[in-house]
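I'll show a typical protein example:
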Amino acid sequence: MEPHSVILSPYENFVFTLNSKESKRQYPHRLDKFLMFIGLKGTIEEKCVKLCDMSKKDSNLLQSYLIRFISSQKDRIKNQEIAEGTLRNYIKAIKYSSQ
């Protein structure tokens, strides 16, 4: 039997890092909010590939998107649209996508 090299997609890596059932249910949706915010199109799997490519090409651009996303969510906290914990959960989902 020949060994097969299997490379997981960025989305598969993301899901693999999630431990709890609740995280596996909620984090993909939270990550997708960020992916839509930065204007990526396609399925979440396709968006994750694009995000991975973007991070390799221009980490400064990705950093700018992260700052803008966090800033927009802080505005939502000020307007009492979301709780502070919601922002932490968005950040956790994005963090897990980079592992």
Remarks:
- The chain is about 75% helix and 0% strand.
- The chain has one domain: 21-97.
- The mean pLDDT is 91.
- Residues 21-97 form one domain.
